[in-house]
Write a structure and sequence with these properties.
There is one protein chain. This protein has 140 residues and is mostly helical. It has one domain. It is built from 7 helices and no strands. Helix 2 packs across helix 6 and helix 3 packs across helix 7. The chain is globular and about 45 Å long. The two termini are 21 Å apart.
């Protein structure tokens, strides 16, 4: 991989991580001091420190699969989508299930401004996934 490509991936990674951080900020404002959210944040920080591309790599297929719902800002997606295929049936399953339940139940209680902010974060993450797929030659 040449230095130009490495720089592009680094920029994409920074932008993607910025969107993830923005998403956690709004979640913190809505659900302060929630241990499930704190746990998810710690896991993401560990991933970033151990393997900076881990969070992006693990998110690419999931965001890509749901790109149409993100682009259309389909709120019903949060109610109807089954996330079971993304969650291993191991010790982490419980906290991931709890995080998904929080999002499912709280999203519809948010103001339109807060919902738009979350959609903007997801759209920013999707934009960076598309850029990453283009660089890797995976865009279909």
């Amino acid at each position: 991989m040449d230095s130009k490509t490495q720089k592009e991936i680094s920029d994409i990674l920074q932008q993607f991580n910025r969107e993830v951080s923005r998403l956690f900020k709004v979640i913190d404002a809505i659900i302060p001091d929630d241990p499930t959210v704190d746990w998810a944040r710690r896991i993401i920080k560990i991933f970033r420190n151990e393997n900076p591309l881990a969070v992006l790599d693990r998110s690419v297929d999931k965001l890509w699969e749901h790109k149409d719902n993100i682009i259309a800002r389909n709120s019903e997606f949060f109610r109807t989508c089954s996330f079971d295929k993304y969650i291993k049936k191991d010790g982490n399953k419980e906290w991931l299930d709890n995080l998904i339940k929080i999002i499912r139940t709280r999203f519809f209680d948010l103001s339109e401004k807060e919902q738009n902010y979350i959609w903007a974060c997801l759209e920013g993450m999707l934009t960076n996934v598309i850029k990453y797929k283009l660089i890797k030659g995976d865009y279909k």
